Each structure stands twice: as structure tokens, then as C-alpha cells.
Queue: 3 jobs
Job 1
Amino acid sequence: MYDVVIVGGGPAGLSAGIYCARARLKTVLLEGANLGGQVTTTDKIENYPGFIEISGMELIGNMEKQARRSGLEIKTFTKVHKLTLEGPNRKVCAGDDIYPCKTIILAGGQKRSGLNLAGEDGFIGKGVSYCAVCDANFFKEKRVAVVGGGDTAIEDANYLSKFASKVFVIHRRSELRATKILQESAFCNNKISILWNHTVEEIIGNNHLESMIIKDVKTGENTKLEVDGLFVAIGSHPHTDIFKNIFAMDEQGYIKVDDKMRTSIPGIFAAGDIRLTPLRQIATAVGDGAIAAISAERYINETASIC
């Protein structure tokens, strides 16, 4: 019997794990892949307090070391597929294993959205990518495009410009949503060209991406753009598919919580990108994880005293 089962091994989950372990709660963290989530795809982090500059992999590595030193049990490549929430003791099912527990902290994060184009999945790894940091090295001195207008898209464009000969940013609107400092860096980069008011209509290629058809949304005109790589950065959606009809969520599937990270079910908490929040950053995820852990500890103490 665990006091706490944490589902997800990104900054929120690791932060929750550190606080739970330090509170001497018997805790296990379950992660369906490697630790870190989207943070590990970030080449350079400059807005996390205490670090002038650090890579995502290094930051997560530091968090993991601290969590293990605190006594947190961590299981990677352990994908959760079911929660059993009836009664005071809950169960988290992952593979053939069952983890009985008193409380659960959901910190599964989110994943990037695709373009939903015909043949898009077939080009993954053959020119289409959702992670610039992961794949930029494959496009040295080549022409690439980034779809999107937010922070991630412009970060990706700036990073890709270190490798590619030309970077096109394809954005469906006439202005970017990215923070001003990121916009300024892109506008000053001679390798980056922004194609305003355009969308990607078709991906073309044989064994590898060769070109795309892009559409001017104002004129309706289609143009062929020759590129070797396409990086998609148009948003994300939370890893909450298996939790539908269990917790209160918004229309996009983000879990609703209160200021103590409590979900609509007592004893179940949510932290980080998986929850409904106005800001999704490493710093906010870490704070969420700490709050969720303290709330879980108090819930356990309160329910124990009632019994």
C-alpha cells in the first residue's frame, strides 16, 4: 500500500515526488516513457529561476537525482491505463501491475498537436517532426519550415536557424502570439522568414518530405514551398484520455482543480500541464507539484484521524 502514487515524470511529478518523499510518505512515481516530458526537448532554458542557462535534459537529470536521494521510488516506461477510485483505498493499474494507494497525483503533462493532414503520420521521421531540439541536427544546411506562432514555434525557428540554411515560419494569422523577446530574436534573424496568413494544405514527397502546398488564407492562392523538413508547433493537448468522464475537465480535456490542486474527487490531485491553468511553464509545474504533495499529505492525515 502506497501513500501516494504519482502519474507522470515531468517537472510537476518530480517536484511532487521530492516533497512526498521528504514528508516520509511511501510514494512511487510512474512514467510511461523517459522522465522529463516536453522539457527534455528544450535545448536552452533561460527563464527558470536560479539558472542563467541550462538544458532541459540537465535540469531533469538534476531533479531526478534529488528525487531519488530523497527516497522517491521511480518506475519509467510504466504506462498507466486505468484508475480504480471506489472506496478509501484507490488502485492505479499500469501494465499487469496494480499499485494500491491512499492518494493519487496526476502529472501526466501534455503532448503536441498534429496538423491532421493526409499522410502526415507516414512522414514522421522522414521530414516531419514535432521536436526541433531532437531532430534539428538532421537538417544541416537544408530548408525547413515551422508551423505555428506561439513561443514554441518561434523558439523552434530560432534553434533551427543554427543548423538549417533557411527557416520559414508558417502562421495563419498576421501577428505572432509569442513573447516579444522571442519575436525580436526571430525578426532579427536573417535566416528566418515569416509567411503571414498561411496554412499548410498538403505534404508532398516519396520516401521523404520534398515540398508542401501552402495556402494564403486571405487570397485563397496555393503555393508550392520546397522544404526538407517540417516542424509542427501548433499547440498541445493533455494526457487525460483515460480520465474522461471521471474528473471535471474543460472542453480541451484539462483537469479542473482548486488552489490546493484538488480535483473533483477527494484524494485525487492534478499538477502541471495536465491541469487547467493560465500559464504552463517549468516554474509553475514545479510549484503545482509541491502544492499537490502537501495537499496529499494533509488529506492522508485528515482521513487517518477520522478513521
Note: The CA atoms of residues 46 and 53 lie 5 Å apart.
Job 2
Amino acid sequence: MPLTNIVRFVSGIDTGIGKSYATAYYAKYLKQKGLNVITQKPVQTGCVNSSEDLALHDAFLANSNTMDGKALQYRCSYLFSYPASPHLAARMENQTIEPSRIINDTRTLVQLGYNAILMEGAGGLMVPLNDDLLTIDFIAKNEFPLVFVTSGKLGSINHTLLSLEAIEQRSIPLEAVIYNNYPGDTPEIEAETKRYIKAYLEQHHPNCTWLELPILEPPI
């Protein structure tokens, strides 16, 4: 089966938008549809020894097969300690991120029996993976459907529409938009942001699934 039928790429309007929580939430959503789901964090920065984002996914998906030890080494292709853009974090450790390595790890996960893979990116769509490749172009080249995370914070309408215009230009299919309700402290702005983005999607991406991420407590 082609990877385009298995992999969904998770990105968002910026770093710190809640992609890891949204990835875990969407993984549960797919699991409820009967899919054998696993998450992948191809490039993790700002961590030592293991990926904090994968740990978060697994904590929310406790007792699921994302805990599979055989899969662990293929879920995070690159781990860097410096909390920066992937291309810079890699350079600081005298490495270069090779997209082929990520794809090979993804194919191995498929061989292990997973038929749905959520690949969470680092930062937003325009974040460089290396000096020659942006995250958005990695997505487009591999024809991965996009799960996009936004929120109601001030500025989200602008950031969301700019991102959607960029994916339209690259013919990236938009599978879902996840609206993060956190922090929920500016109700007037958040309500209008939600209304406007939903209306825009209904007009420009009518087949896109709209989901709302509730305010989740960090797993213990």
C-alpha cells in the first residue's frame, strides 16, 4: 500500500500550538475507526535520550500498541538536544537531516503492521529540515495528507489562512483541521476566530474534517 494511504502529516500554525496533544487526539480518533495507529516524530529537538512528544502521545494512548518496543527506534529518526529549528539543531551536532532516512523508518513501521501513521512535524509548515528542504515541501513531495492544528489565539486567522494558501499552492490535501481550545481565556476573540476559520474551510476545503481539541490535562 502506498505511504500516501497510510501517513498523515501533523503540522500547525506555529511551534507551541498543541501539535503533540492534537496528534494523540487524532490517533485516538483513527483508532476508533478500526485502524492500527502509531505516531512518529521524525525530528525531535530540545530533548536528550528520547522524544518527549512521543512520550506524550503514548501517555494519552496508554494500553495501545503505540508502546510496541520493536517500533520505537523507527519512530524518531533524528533526536537533537538543542531546542531550535531542525536544520540548526542538526548543524550544531554536525549532522544533516536526510529525508530518505525518515521515509525508510516510516516504511519499516508499515512492515511492522501499522496501517495508519501520524507523523508530527517540528514547528510550522515553513520550518527548514535542512538548507534545501522546508517541511511543507517534504510533505508535498511525499504527497502526505495534512492534519493541521490551529487555535483561537490572537493572530490565528492570519497564520491559518497563510498556511492554507501555501498548501493550496502545493496541492497538499487537507484531511483535517484540529482547533485547539486551549487556553480558553479570550472568549470573544476565540469565538470569532473559530467562526471565521470554519466558514473559510467550508468554502475552500469542504471535504476537510473539523475537530475541536478539548482542554486536556497533561497525562500523569
Note: The mean pLDDT is 93.
Job 3
Amino acid sequence: MALAKWKRLTVVAAAVALIASGCSGNGGSQTGPAASAEGTSSTAPAGETVKLKYWGAIPPENGPQKVVDAWNAQNPNIQVEYYRYVNDEPGNTKLDTALISKNDAPDIFVSYGETHLNRRLNAGMAEPLGELIAQAKFDVDTVIGKDNIIEVKGQIMYLPAIRLLTAVLFNENALKEAGLTLPKDWTLEEFADTAAKLTTPQRKGVFMGVTSDNLARFSLLGSKPVDSYYKEDGTSNFDSASLRRGLELQKQLTDGKSMVPWPEVIASKLLPQNELLSNKAAMVMGGTHNIRDLKNTADFPRDFKVLFAPNPQAVPGGNINYAGFNDFMSINKNSKYKKEAMQFIAWYLTKGNEDMIPGGRLPSNKNADIDKVVELFVGEYGAQIDKPSLAEVLKKEYSFPKQLRTEAYSDLSKVLLDETERYVMGVQTLDQTMQQLKSKADKAIAEVK
């Protein structure tokens, strides 16, 4: 999911842009470059109020409605209406259909993850933003960083609203009971070893949402962050020694009963945050996207604090974070009000999205005040969420995986997941798995070419 090279969390916006230093969702001051609708001309007839439709997947009550209300109060001539779609297969199909419709089509839409983003860009659904960015006087490099955006044929087609950070979330009590200290810099091997030490008859050492968070994938991303799925000759990288080692570690977790069996994870639709907060797992692969879950004390009352550690590395001493920039904001190519849509996006990315932070949306603004982000993240839940370890993870320097090549990318992702599942479940041997991975991935790439 990661799109860019992260020079510094402070620098790369904790994607969480909003905070652009002290800016507030209802019009506070900010230290980054300002971008607002003031002083710009509208493409609508004189005196007519422009109405923009803004589609995203975050529930309105978790921030988007406050953001839209703040904008609408400041910009009576450009009013924004937020529409929530569900970020699942039917929901994404609904958005895709709306983008090509002539009635009630979105002006602004948010894609979550590279797969959905690339599909919409390849289908020509998004407007190139270069000229619109210039008109809005939005300084991409100062706010987000040009290196953190992948251009398409020399064009900026989206702007990321947040930066996601992966991290390992710990039950503090479980860590103490096992006599372990919070890891600072560790490897995937040490992660698997820690899971074994944390495992008790009542609690699994680790839980991972295996369809996306598995050690095979992390090992591949961590060992080759740029175009991890591909070799220089254009074939797949699915015969790498690092991928093989990641597969072994994933099976080690299952065979050693350090985690819930893979089939049960899928069949029961178990979620990492639920397993952690219900005291069924001592640690989980999670990240900043779980902040909102950690505040859910109504469904998950608990007597332990959640601690944060940086994610384990495939290469010792590495600084790869397995997430990256997300919440990709684009403008519908068919929108009648592209200029006004860009004005809203520019405002949102510099100072308008502070109300999104408490729900775990870490802004993409390089000027974000991380200490303030931590305060907004935690709020009144200091007894449940550990501020010092959270701040340390957020302030750490990272690089993110970056996928410049996209040939058969979604097909390769499916091949990797399917073959990993077969191996972990004992359907095929490791050698058979490596052979299947390589042959199927190479075939998918060749068919696209």
C-alpha cells in the first residue's frame, strides 16, 4: 500500500496531514502553505452555489461530517456533501458505477489501496491534477513531497490524504507476564520467537489477519521495497530466498500453535484488534488504523494498556514500514466543477482534516505536529493507549514499499496469497509452493504483456 519513500515521519506527513501544525478543522491557524477557496473564481454561473459530491469510505460520524461542515461554514458558495460507500467489493463496484454515470456522480472520490486506485486510473475515471494544482496554488512538494506520489505518464492523478503506519500492538500485561521488554528494532525471526514465548494455554502469542498481514508478504516487501513483486528482467520475484524464509516463518507460527490456525482466521472472519482487545492474543500486526478500535471500551472493556512497537524487519537494521500513503483523493474526469473540487482537496490536505485524526487518520502533511497527533489519537484514553510508545513509533524514520511496475499486480497478489495459504494449511510442500509461485506469477505477467 505504500507508495513512497519516507524520509522522515515528521517529514512525510505522518500522512496525517491535517495537523499541518496546529491547524484546526474549524479554521485554526497553520504553518504549512495555505490553500483555500478565497480569491478564486468559480466555473459555475455567477451567483450560483456550487454543490460538490464527495465520496469516501469513512463513516460520517468518524470525522468526515465535521470536516465538511467546517468547509461549508467557511465557503457558502461551494458546498460539499459527503457520501459514504463501504470499502468492500460491492461498495467499490458502486463507486465505479457512479463515476461513469450522468446522475449524482461524485466530484471527489477516495480510493483505498493501490488496487482500487490503479483500476480507476487505468479506466480513465480520474482527471489529471497538474493544472488544477497550479490554479489552487497548492505546493505538493512542501505539503506532501513529490517523491511520495507516483505519477502516471508524467501526470499527478491523485493526492494521498493520509499515511498509514504498520506497528505491532502488545497487551502490556502479557508482555510483563512473559518477562519480555517492548521490542525496538527486531527481525521477523525474533517476531516469531516472541510469539512462541507469549503463547499460553489461555492466549495465543500473536494474531495476524492472514489475507493481507502474513510473514511471506512482509518478508518479500522488506527485502525488496521497490517493485518487490518483480525482477529487473520483468519476471516475477516469487522465487526469492526472502519469500521462502517468510513462508517458513508463517508456517512455524501455525504449526507451533502460536497463532490461530489459518482456516479458522478466514472461516470465522476474525479481526486482529478484536483478538487483542478480548485478551485472546498477546500481540497483533496492526497500525495507526487501529486507533479507533483501541478506544472501543464499550465492546472491549479491559484491564491492560496497549503498547506499540515498530514492525519487525526482513533485513536486520532495516527501516521498512509495510504500509505507506493511502486515502487517495481524485477528481472525477466527468465533474463539472473540477476547479472547486481541487480547492476543497487543497484545503483538506493543509488544514481541513484535523477532525479525522482522532479516528486514526494520520495526515500526509510533512509539517504535521506529531506530538499533537498523539494527543488527538489518544484523547481521554490514556489508561488504555500508551502515549510514549505510540509517539516513538510515529517519530521513527521509515522507508515504504513502492510499486512502480503494475503488470498483473492484482493477479500476482492473488497468486501469493493462494499459494501461501496452501502451504500453511499443509496442502503442498515448501518446494512445491515455491515452484507454483514462480510459474503462476511469470505466466500472469507474460499474459499481460
Note: Residues 1-41 have pLDDT under 50 and may be disordered.
